[in-house]
Amino acid sequence: MNSLTNAGLFLISSVFDLYMLIVLLRFLLQWARADFYNPISQAVVRLSNPPLRPLRRIIPGFKGLDMASLALVFALAAVKLILLISISPLAAPPVLTIAILTLGEFFSLLINTFFWSMIIQIILSWVFTFGSKNPSLAQIAQLTEQLTAPIVAPVRKILPPMGGLDLSPIPVILLLQFLEISLSGITLSLTDLARQF
């Protein structure tokens, strides 16, 4: 591949990854009952609204969750892969392989969103211990805490804070890393299997 092709692959991947993250955050923040009026939440809503408004006419919500957001993330992942394949010199894989890779892309994004939210939350908690009162950082910290609360809460019941030290994020982070590594192996195995059909 020449440098122009590599640049195109990087640009497509970066743009799609960023917008997929925004749309997925729209779903996750709603699922976690995060503060809708947080400026970051408002930015996510504004950026994701244009494609979601018409899509909601076709895909209704389910139990208060915006299922159109999930559908859009899947669609964006599929389009991204198709575009990357179309400008790549490699042979186009079967449709089943693309479907498997799309699922892998979605779950990898989901896992990494939680993982980096946890990391950001931990870093900001250290920053605040040194007396930082930056309002923008406080908004980010609030949102990451609300976003990760549903997955940390079960662990916190088993491993409650001890002496003001909360260790519950550690097993959650390790589990997320384990899931990401396992997902890579599962996706590879399934794509190999799909090529046999």
TrEMBL record:
It holds the Pfam family CCB3_YggT. GO terms for cellular component: membrane. It comes from the Bacteria. Keywords: Membrane, Transmembrane, Transmembrane helix. Coiled coil: none annotated. InterPro entries: CCB3/YggT. Belongs to the YggT family. This is YggT family protein.
